[in-house]
Amino acid sequence: FRDHVAVGSHPFSWGNPPDVHCCNTVDGQGWDDNPVFFFSDTLEDYRNIMVRNGHTDVKLWATEFGWATWDEFPGDPPETWMSYTNKWQQAEYTLRAFEIGQQTDYLGTMILWNMNFAWLPGLVENRDERAAYSLLTRLKPQQERPLYWMLYDAVRPDVHLDRYDAG
């Protein structure tokens, strides 16, 4: 690790909010009984491994993260946990994850998954989980999920949108 500047991780959360830690299980829910299903636990576990091995000067990058939602897509989601998060929670959880990243000294670059997989032919129709993370959809009348506009708003201090949904 001497010549490395970062370790990458994929701290996905299977519908669990970014501040929540394992394991307050809900009977019959699932994806809440193992630390790997939690954003903060995953990052902390990676960091603890790095510290134990003397790599305290190496940053941890979230090279792929996000919250899936099947909200407003036709049919049932490909996995039950995609019904745990609606489009508004997707936005709330993602912005909170970025706040956590800004407040955590060992966390560096964060790469949100993904912009537009719901636009790819057949992904929604074939219930492909990659579509559920998308910020852009083919839904009418609005093609952007609230997260798209909240991110737009968050990085422009001179702009404040009145709303993040269609209408």
Task: Give a nutshell description of this structure.
This protein has 167 residues and is an alpha/beta fold. It is 24% helix and 10% strand.
3D structure, described in words:
With 167 residues, the protein is an alpha/beta fold. 24% of the residues lie in helices and 10% in strands. The protein has a domain of 109 residues. A three-stranded parallel β-sheet has the order 1-2-3, with helices on one face. The mean pLDDT is 92.
What share of residues are in beta strands? 5-15%
| Topology order in helix (H) and strand (E) letters | EHEHEH
Count of individual helical segments: 3
- The residue ranges in which pLDDT falls below 50 over 5 or more consecutive positions are none
Distance between the termini: 51 Å
Work out the helicity level.
10-25%
Average pLDDT confidence is 92
Taking the sheet with the most strands, its summary is: 3 strands, parallel
Shape: globular
Number of strands: 3
Notable characteristics:
three-stranded parallel β-sheet, alpha/beta, single chain
